[in-house]
Amino acid sequence: MMKGTIDLFGKILTNILTALYEPFGFSLLLSFLAMFFYLYAYEPTEAGKGWKSAIVTWYRKFKESVYFRKLFLLAFVTSMILFRTLLNRNLWMNPLSNVMGGWGIWETVNGEQKLTTECIENVIMMVPFSAVVMWTFGQREKILWQSGKIAFIFSVVIEMLQLLLRLGTFQVADIFYNTVGGVVGGLLYYVVMKVRKKL
Prior knowledge:
The chain is mainly α. Helices cover 74% and strands 4% of the residues. The protein is built from eight helices and two strands, in the order αααααββααα. Strands 1-2 form a two-stranded antiparallel ribbon. A hairpin with a 2-residue loop joins β1 and β2. α2 crosses α5, α5 packs antiparallel against α6 and α6 packs across α8.
């Protein structure tokens, strides 16, 4: 019994770490480039003087501006999620083939029980996203409601894009677990803010 539980947690941990490791480098590069776009939109005179000047401006802005660093982190977390849900997916013939699936950690494949950590990954994936959104934009009121709402809307957009682009399957469970993860992220942000206030 104990060995089975340890093996189960080991598989869950391996799947989650793999899900985080695979898109890490790509997400870092994408967020770096996204912040260049931000600089060109908001500081074109400094960033638009050649690539050397752009890199110097990027570095200076990252060093001096807390808001810039928050936006960079938000871009990184968002691109990690997009890589996991849209950018690195195979085409599906029928994206509506399993609308009500994905609720548990065990699924039956060809009559055999198989472990899947997708529901746990969906919760974990949205925790940093909603926490970073709340932190970036300095949310102070109705934190749980706002974080849940943001996670729900973001999740619905992802699921609709999966449906339209045929990248993965549309699942109600994904929306539910992502929203739960969003609320947990909001709760985490709320607790950290309260602790910081007391200190």
